[in-house]
Specification:
- This protein is of the alpha+beta class and about 270 residues long.
- The protein has a single domain (about 1-45, about 50-270), classed as Lipoprotein localisation LolA/LolB/LppX (outer membrane lipoprotein receptor (LolB), chain A), CATH 2.50.20.
- The protein has helices at about 1-15, 60-70, 75-80, 145-155, 165, and strands spanning about 40, 55, 80-90, 95-105, 110-115, 120-125, 130-135, 140, 170-180, 180-190, 195-200, 205-215, 220-235, 235-245, 250-260.
- A hairpin with a 4-residue loop joins strand 6 and strand 7.
- It is globular, with a radius of gyration of 19 Å.
- The two termini are about 25 Å apart.
Length: about 270
Amino acid sequence: MKLKLAISLTVLFFIAGNTFGQKPEPAKTPVKPVESETTKTPVKTAETKSAPVPVKLPTTQEILSKYVQALGGRGTNEKIKTRMLKGTIELAPMGIKGTVESYMSAPDKSYTKSNLQGIGDIIEGFDGTTAWSSNAIQGSRDKEGEELLQTKMINIFHRETNLEKLYPKMEVKGMEKVGDKDTYVVVATPNGLAPETFYFDVKSGLLVRADSILISPEGKMPGKTFYEDIREIDGIKLPYKVRVVLPQFEIISNITEVKHGVTLEESKFAKPKS
């Protein structure tokens, strides 16, 4: 069960993590409550003898605008139509390592192939309509229902610059520390799926963590995705390291090569004929 789940989620998280991106897993440190979208009153603590002056929070639009600019701007991001990624992946603490390569094309197509030690190839594709997967342990199958809907969301090529369109409801819930960074906490609800929680760095504006529920054939599982080693390439920002922390294990991916503007045929994303 654990191995099957790991296989199901490995490729999906590689795609989601490296596009920078369901009901969130309850955080160990509760999000501080807010009185409204723009005013926060922190809870008193043992170290806080009196309530501090309420802090004004930015609106969701202000947070998203800063995020898009931090990524390199809407125009720079959306002029890129194709992407090729190569990297390494590890399932900890199982000690399973492997390589992965992914091809993505706007508006929503993808093909990802990973090879894990002792397991072999894991292949997933989405042609804009049909989402399919194939591996030695689970065989070949098409995705349906919520799993298909989630795959469609993850594969939107310009997802990061269009969050306000993909999530009709977005609310600023407060502030929270992610590592040593102060972040704004935004709960975002898409159509047909449970909410996700985004953590935007107050200083840089970048997304540094996302909490969500991953849907797989083995069921639903809460996960925390951390975006690290963010670098600039071709004028835009991408995380070169992504850690996905799940209750049973952790998926760690590191990008070793990125290319934009690669030529990709439509047949690349089509489900193989049986």
